[in-house]
Input
Amino acid sequence: MSAPGPAAGRRRRAAVLTAVLACSALLTGTGPAAARSAPPAPPSPSPSVTVPKLDWSPCRPGSPWDCATAKVPLDHAAPAGRTIDLAVVRRQATDPGRRIGTLFVNPGGPGGPGTVQVPQNYGAFPKELRERFDIVSWDPRGIGNSTAVNCFDTPEEAKTWAARPPAGFPVGAQERKAWIDAYEDLGRRCEKRDPDLLRHVSTADTARDLDLLRRSVGDPQLNYLGVSYGTILGATYANLFPGSIRAMVLDSNIAPRAWTDRPPQGEPRTTTLLRMGSDRTAAATLDRFLALCGSAPTARCAFSAGSPEATRQKFDRLMQRLRERPIGPWTYAKTVADTVNSLYIVDPGWTALAGRLQELSQGRAPAPPVYPPPPPVAQPNPYLGDEQAAAVWCSESPNPRDPAVYHGLEEDSARRAGDVGRFWTWAAEPCATWPARSAAGYDGPWNRPTARPVLVIGTRYDPSTPYAGARAMAGELADARLLTNDGYGHTALFNNGSTCISAYESRYFVDGTLPPPGTVCRADRVPFS
Output
């Protein structure tokens, strides 16, 4: 559920734990000067909490990005105790004379390193936001270049462990045992390594860090853009600090209750991702990919079989052949995982995916993907092991604790969602044996009145966070407006495929104007057209 970037090249398992068409409405809405009920007062900070000082300096000689380190309490309830480091990056507003303030960005995850992924994708931000805001991101506690969860003594040890779980998800009893044993071993290693850190990497901990960072840059209220997992972080902040919101955009949303709700008695019956509906939305997005591909000539979509139905059948035949006989390292499960992950970014992801599927259909192993060069930051390739996402997700979101139930959940999901359901079911299994529980989580309420309304964006064909999640988020928050992206891929921001979305987003951040209720934006270009 994280944003694209160098980290996207690693194997995603628990870490997943990631022509102009007109808008349907005009740029109108209610600005911040309109009459509103009195907003809640910002929370009074504890005098014992020290606001971190950010000593900015260029991340590298000649880099347009500045880096700093913030020291924050490990336990916000005990600010005099142990501190941890947060790695922070900043790109200053390109039009300083018209600067509004700082825009904090979380690129998703959990486990997304903002100090890498935001610089990597800086060009995706609307031009007006780059001109008028300092763009700031950070690696949340437990992640990447911040004080990180790392359960191995050496890189070699981590690499040896990473070879144990089957690529993608397990197929058959032997692989299921190997997967379960590997993640149970990972949990044991993590518990021995730094158990205190494991209990203090929750979303609520990070929301409190974010408020300290806001105060560090001197902004009286928060401007925030959160995508994917960053939507839960944003919703948590909005309910912990409701008076501190100036502008907040939540893009590709996780339904709050899907993330936090526990059954009144007993163990959870299903996983976070299946409650969210990730399996169903991935199946719908894959079907759309195959339909659009099949409607295009092979010059535009290499995997096209001449019609949507013929292309769907071609995909099903390929999956069956790979189950029986892999092509080099390309097993059935690896190919399904690659398919889901490649649906995240339409350009160039969908075209590249079609090319790989065509290579496999002809019995050839595709060439390894080519990743973009690293961004000009101090540490562009931090360690991003599976335990970092698991430490956040598994410590606070309910998932079944018995590894034996996941095979049944997989089969249920496969019946409704096909191959992609197997991938999304097993992505949550590491939580079954995760050893830690959050000491300071947040599970609602989600409807505390905020100083300003929140803008919620949902995409129709998203392989990870369904459109229903955006509707749920807009309904749960006290004051939110839903903007629909009738488009494709995971997040409107990083697909950058709708000038309509960008225009509404920019105007909202600049002057608080919301799109009219029911606004639908469409993609500038249909894939393979």
